[in-house]
Amino acid sequence: MGDRSRGEIESEIKEALGLVPHFFCGIPDDLLAYEWELFKRFELDETLIPNKYKELMGIALHSETKCRYCTLFHTEAARIFGASEEEIQEAVHYAKHSLGWSAYLNGIREDYDDFAQELGQIKGYLSSQG
């Protein structure tokens, strides 16, 4: 934890979140500062991807992993960062749609090189249209 004690880090967590969530309590002392810094960076701080979009990605991702903890967390965080119910529904629908295509393409064993070549053609065509 460097120069900071567990108590100091937990105080910082409480100041940021209003409490120290139980899931932080089991993190070993030597990893707590590291995990908290990552949590702050990706869940609270603005990064290149706006928070609302990161949380919508989290909803889509965890609708597939079926982690109810993560799905709940990212849904509530998306709401905090301004996502509408329609955007949340769209994120889940997009995940369903994308996963369906993944299952199909992998299931039929689509040739990857042919797929990449055709995608290049589509990209070129669409780029020339706009």
TrEMBL record:
Signal peptide: none annotated. InterPro entries: AhpD-like, AhpD_core, CMD-like. Residues 40-105 form the Carboxymuconolactone decarboxylase-like domain. It comes from the Bacteria. This is Carboxymuconolactone decarboxylase family protein. It comes from Streptomyces aureoversilis.
